[in-house]
Write a structure and sequence with these properties.
By secondary structure, the protein is of the alpha+beta class. The chain contains eleven helices and 24 strands. It has two domains: 11-182 and 397-479, Aminopeptidase (3-Layer(aba) Sandwich), CATH 3.40.630; 185-395, Alpha-Beta Plaits. The chain has helices at 11-20, 31-43, 115-129, 151-155, 226-240, 270-288, 313-323, 368-385, 405-418, 432-439, 464-479; strands at residues 47-50, 56-60, 72-77, 99-102, 105-108, 138-143, 165-168, 176-181, 183-192, 195-208, 213-214, 244-250, 256-257, 261-267, 299-311, 328-332, 340-352, 356-365, 388-395, 398-399, 423-426, 444-447, 452-453, 461-463.
Length: 480
């Protein structure tokens, strides 16, 4: 029985979407999802395998007369990006996602919806448990912690996989078949800083109201990065009035464009604080003239405060140097489709009074050498300022063929199921397809999905009828 979602065609996948929305599943906390899927497998007499990486593989035998057909794999990740609005009271470790239906749009109450990748998990559970469907043998691989670097997929034992064709259900655009994605790497830079205990006047800057978004799929949309904006504001003020940062904090997830950032810097006197505030207001006015529509709610709150400590001038200059590094799209592809080739997201920054600043970056590219270049540039800056870097969670890119048998089969099934057409393309985001195809020899893969908007933000929405159409297409493809 559906509780929230009404007036839909396919009840079973929406039922599962509602059920998994009740289970906390922020990245790194997928154990509840594993237990839920395992119990479904047991109840339906399905073979399953779990591992220490919180991945779970469930197998369904082929329908009568189709037992000996080639196995096909469906794949999705169980975790979600946990983002919420500042005024939303929600604990992602224990609270369910509160779903809201607005006509054909499904959203959450002040948090990320989790359609990325809840819709894929729901479709797979429906396929596994609907005994009326005609299917070949199916392997459903549910992976963990995709959003923080394809962690679960990197730990899975792929000798368990029999399939040579894989449908990854983690795309966010219905009318495309994804045949290629970027590789990526995360970097954490740690800057040692000198902390000076001194009571001074200061200014607190709070940036908010930005749209943010997916650091891959939305990186070329001109949306402001709150950390970069903060660096720009502080840098402009520092050209005219010497300042020393006292604290700074912005962003939260490596794969999300930061929406908020707060910083405090020390000044010599109340008069200097007020002079700084006037200058900041001028800088902010310039920034507002360059905003895309999604960022029109951008706001900056300025307050005079007291500081009990601050970083040295030299340490402040180091921080500002890193915040001014090239960000967003660094290079575009030179062949169609014209998409970002290489990008970098200055994802998060944290300051600590014990003498260090940590800054997290996410680099993406279709080319391994460009990922190497981005890492090398960050290493070079780190050496210049006496900082250290740690590169981690690297994963490969992937590119298939636009006219492969699986692409053609999906296009045909989509047209039969919906009366519409769909075209192959690439995306500037990371998918598990690259890692999995590198582990399973001869595996052919595509990535497909429903229309999901504003991923990795509290504004995330999913089109309900699009979800219906993707489920119909999966069922149609499995029929054949």
């Amino acid at each position: 029985m559906l509780e929230t979602i009404k007036n839909i065609k396919n009840h079973l996948p929406f039922y599962y979407f509602e059920q998994i929305s009740k289970i906390p599943r922020a990245s790194g906390n997928e154990r509840g999802m594993v237990e839920y899927i395992k119990n479904i497998a047991i109840e339906n007499g399905l073979e399953y395998y779990t591992d220490k990486g919180d991945n779970i593989l469930v197998r369904k035998k082929g329908s009568v007369g189709r037992e000996n057909e080639d196995t096909i794999m469906l794949q999705a990740h169980t975790d979600m990006v946990a983002e919420k609005n500042n005024n939303t009271v929600h604990d992602f470790a224990s609270d369910p996602i509160m779903l809201i239906q607005d006509g054909n749009i499904l959203r959450a109450n002040g948090t990320t919806l989790g359609a990325d990748d809840g819709f894929g998990v729901a479709i797979m559970l429906a396929v596994l448990t609907d005994k009326s469907l005609s299917t070949p043998p199916i392997e459903c691989l549910f992976t963990a912690s995709e959003e923080i670097g394809l962690v679960g997929a990197g730990k899975f034992d792929y000798s368990k996989i029999n399939a040579k064709r894989m449908i990854n259900l983690d795309s966010a655009e219905e009318n495309t078949v994804i045949i290629g994605c970027c590789g990526g790497v995360r970097t954490e830079m740690t800057i040692p800083v000198d902390c000076i205990s001194e009571s001074t006047n200061g200014v607190k800057i709070t940036i908010g109201g930005l749209c943010g978004g997916h650091s891959g799929e939305d990186i070329d949309k001109g949306r402001k990065n709150a950390n970069v904006v903060m660096g720009s504001i502080l840098g402009e003020i520092n050209k005219k009035i010497s300042l020393c940062i006292s604290s700074i904090s912005g962003g939260d997830k490596d794969n999300a464009i930061p929406r908020e950032c707060t910083a405090i810097f020390a000044t010599e006197s109340k008069e200097k604080s007020r002079e700084c505030i006037s200058l900041i207001e001028e800088v902010v006015a310039d920034i507002k003239r360059d905003l895309v529509d999604e960022d029109k709610s951008f706001l900056v709150v300025l307050e005079e405060v007291s500081c009990s400590y601050h970083y040295s001038k030299e340490s402040t200059e180091k921080i500002l140097k890193v915040l001014s590094l090239p960000n967003a799209v660094l290079e575009y592809r030179k062949v169609k489709p014209i998409l970002p080739q290489t990008s970098r997201n200055l994802a998060k920054i944290r300051s600590y009074p014990d003498g260090k600043i940590t800054i997290g970056f996410s680099s993406r590219s279709y080319l391994e050498e460009k990922l190497d270049w981005s890492c090398a540039e960050l290493d070079k800056i780190a050496r210049e300022i006496g900082a250290s870097t740690y590169h981690h969670e690297r994963y490969p890119g992937w590119q298939g063929e636009g006219d492969s048998a699986l692409v053609v089969d999906w296009q045909s099934a989509y047209e039969r199921a919906t009366g519409r057409r769909t075209e192959p393309t690439l995306i500037h985001a990371g998918l598990e397809c690259g890692l999995i195809t590198s582990k399973v020899n001869g595996l052919e893969a595509i990535s497909v999905g429903a229309n999901v908007h504003d991923l990795h933000t509290p504004q995330e929405t999913m089109e309900i009828d699009s979800f219906d159409r993707i489920y119909d297409t999966v069922v149609e493809l499995l029929k054949k």
